[in-house]
Specification:
The protein contains 10 helices and 5 strands, in the order E-H-E-H-E-H-H-E-H-E-H-H-H-H-H. The chain is of the alpha/beta class. It folds into 2 domains: 5-137, Rossmann fold (3-Layer(aba) Sandwich), CATH 3.40.50.10140; 160-218, no CATH class. Strands 2-1-3-4-5 form a 5-stranded parallel β-sheet, with helices on both faces. Helix 1 (14-26) links the parallel strand 1 and strand 2. Helix 7 packs across helix 8.
Length: 224
């Protein structure tokens, strides 16, 4: 289900994140936050990917804890890859790690210290309302159903063992979400080479993309 904001945070900042959500939702802005909005017995990685895809903005509760969180870093990486706007809401005076700075250096930062945080939440809500209105003004007109090209049939040429190998190779770079991305890409890839090249676009640097493709070729999964 579409929502306005995906909230990313580390577990030690849970109380702050939930307080932030309460303020944002009181302004009529819909949010998604884990674990509140994760379906029972759902695949956590799949839920994160779906929630990011359905969001319009990511709000990152930034602290020393989130700065060191591998899960937060993966969510930020996915958000950047999906060209999702990110708003770091910095609750501590912390310099981002190099891995996060790479993704966040061009983003607008909102400092939320010193306390109390209530005025900072109000500034956040005002910023989000403006950002969401601006996005809405840029939404393209709806596509005519007659112009939509039907997706290709599922790729039958790739067997379960090959998919598992692709899971493992892609997971070296992006973690457990690789399994979800491989299955989704396989659903409409025209052949195995197309599938691998498509998965390579999930990586953020030319070096990693080239390395991923070369590894697949060395293992003989498709011909050059």
């Amino acid at each position: 289900m579409p929502h306005d904001v995906f909230v990313s945070y580390s577990q030690p900042d849970h109380d702050c994140a939930m307080e932030l959500v309460e303020h944002v939702e009181s302004h009529g802005i819909s949010t998604w936050i884990a674990p509140r909005d994760v379906s029972p017995a759902a695949d956590w990685a799949a839920e994160i990917i779906d929630a990011l895809s359905a969001a319009r903005v990511m709000v990152l509760v930034f602290s020393a804890s989130s700065n060191d969180s591998a899960q937060v870093r993966r969510e930020v990486e996915r958000a950047v890859h999906k060209q999702l706007r990110i708003l770091p809401f910095r609750i501590e005076d912390v310099v981002p790690s190099k891995s996060l700075e790479y993704f966040l250096s061009a983003q607008h930062w909102l400092d939320a210290f010193p306390p109390p945080r209530a005025p900072h939440y109000e500034r956040l809500c005002a910023f989000l309302q403006t950002a969401l209105r601006t996005q809405a003004a840029r939404v393209p007109p709806p596509v005519n159903a007659a112009d939509v090209v039907a997706p290709a049939a599922p790729l039958a040429a790739v067997n379960a063992a090959q998919l598992q190998q692709l899971d493992m190779e892609l997971a070296r770079y992006i973690g457990p979400v690789a399994k979800i991305l491989v299955r989704r890409a396989a659903a409409d890839a025209s052949d195995f080479e197309h599938l691998v090249l498509r998965l390579a676009t999930e990586l953020d640097s030319d070096h990693e993309r080239r390395q991923f493709i070369d590894t697949c070729r060395q293992l003989g999964r498709f011909r050059s």
